[in-house]
Amino acid sequence: MYSLVSNRSLIPSISYLTYGALWKKYLNNEQFDQTDKDLKLYIRKNFLYAPEYVYEKFYKNFIAENDILKFIEQIASSFLECKAGEIFVQSNKMEEWQGLISIISPIPFVAYFYYIHSIKLPNIFSILPTNNYKFSINENFSEIYDMHIHINGTSETFYAWNKALSNPKAFIDTYNDSPNHKNSLEELLLQDLSTSVYDFFLMLESARIVRDLLEKYIKTDSFDNIDFHNFYKSIYNAKCSSTKFPQQRTNPYTKELELWKNLFNKKDKLPQEIRSLLHFYVLCQSQFERILVQQISQNGFKQFLYISDNKIRDHYEDDGFKERLLQLNERSRNQKINLEIRITPKNFCTKMEKIINTYTKLVDQSLVNKDNFKISIICHFIKFEEPIREGKISIQRFAHTKAQTLKETKSFLGCLESLLDSPIEVKKKYDLFVGLDAAGNELYSRPESFSHSFSIIRKRLKNKDKNIGITFHAGEEFIHILSGIRYIYEAYTFLEYQPGDRIGHANALGLEPKAWREKLNNHITIKKGEWLDNLILFVVKTKCTDKDILNDIIQYWQEIYSNNFTIEEILDIGFEAYKLRQYAYDAEIESIAKHPQKDIIHNIYKKYLFYTYDTYDEDIEIQLNEKFDVYIRGFQDVILLELAQKEIVIESMISSNIRISFYNRYKEHHIIKWLDKQHNMPLVTLASDDPGIFNTNIFCEYSHLYDMLDQNNDKFNIYNKTLANNAKKASFVNRYLKK
Ligand SMILES: [Zn+2]
Q1: Domains: count for the chain
Q2: Considering the entire predicted model, what is its pTM?
Q3: Per-residue pLDDT at 96 exceeds 60
């Protein structure tokens, strides 16, 4: 994060407000001040490669200031601005701001602006400011679509924080009951100064008490003496006389903003004890933020899973959908919002019914305007990690995901079909179900694991006169760009895409090969079979005649399948065998019944599926070079053209890609390259993915796009128009929801 900070004078204060070791020092009764040596070292580290004279000046100023509220004021003024009574992120500061709020809650900074501009505290459900793009909006921006949003993982951190603090004990108990979630949390905490799960809970318990004490101080202007030599015991004793922590409130933001506004009001006479308590509170919130929001340093999907699986957000989200819908509805006063919300198949009908009922209730209570805020539902199946194969037992590849998906398909269809058989008024409600998806770690399983189940679902629903769209997470994370491109190819081929179906992410088609290669130091390790499959598809699709590549194909083929095919045979028969992966085992025979070499094809397919774990899965090392950059770019274009011809749409999600995939900076993201590509390019839409995990929303994503264009209004309007038109065409609701 610190490499992004353009105003380096802020580095010491941001470090002071976020350094995890400091809340531990409070709890360990370690006395410290701003000159603390660990803090000093940490600050020095955050200046990265800057020479001493750069760092020393800022450090000296930081020591001289000695006022937490002043630090918050400096940071807020450096990032935010107020126009016509509204708070915005300053021009070209979105990326930095996004980095900042991945390590610290945005609340104090926003609160400072409410205070300094004497803005009446609003009844808000979302705290995230955007930049001022709305001053440049045209009519194309009056209706906005977010067609890729997972409802779990949506809520902003503060909701989970508030829930955790309302009852830390219940929160702790969840972890003792579910070791898997505990593992994910432990993994994250280990990355952050080896904090233990127990310490984390103690921190929450203490933050709860400290928040009470701050409220009490605001109300009474007095406080019990806190002994910082005996911090926990001392605050715990003070707690007994304090007010009870309020239970779930309809809108926790207002209350928190009010607390901050009151603290700013008293900023000149705040006692040192209160400043220290406030420091502790901000540090704890920062620690919490770092466990719930994907950090800049946390590349890759596995890190994402630690955050999405650690149960902290679920703890709050299990309570229902009301606040989440209100959060997403926040800006519908100015713009029409259409959401295609994704949920998992587990208890799908119950969850869908809950969402629809909550939505209907909010409409009935006039908390949501149904013309300005519309939702529909997509079911996303999960890519599971395959269990480790024991001994020589030959289990079908992806057996676990295939079986699990089929099982879930059966229960999903069972309930859905009965809903579709209901009387028309009941049935109508479930028209809001519009599509299928599969999400999860791409390295765990491939599109072939879902093809059988998805085809069953589509056919069975069609029999009930129900058409749905398919969208599939593909080309988001990959070992090699070619693997990612092949994943996309398999999604639209094996899942029998129809015009209008969509691919989620497709980074492999946008990422610049050279940048990717250099990030990996020109070297990767990959399974031999995966590499062979990549090369075969590459040659089949691009008609490449590079001798080295053809020789590699022949050699790997021989090593994996132990037969001496010529290159022509591999590209013909071998490719036929590859295509069989789409079918459920035993159903594939029918598809090649008339092929003269059906037995050989089938034999290769069976080898792939059951008998090549020793050869196909053997790791090999690959050198990445410039020659291949050119090949990859060509392959990207071929597949983009194929998508365009098949009328398949790409859902692009900038912040999610920046955090998970191979990009260092927003401007490296390929969306502008795609939007500029006039020909042979499929439609592209913009979406938010897991807004809570990236601390964003669809409006922030547009803000990022605006900054990526250096806030060029003309360009921004052109792209908006394209994105708006694309979204209208690509929306499953517009396509499949019966009017
Ligand atoms: Zn997603």
Answers
A1: 2
A2: 0.94
A3: yes
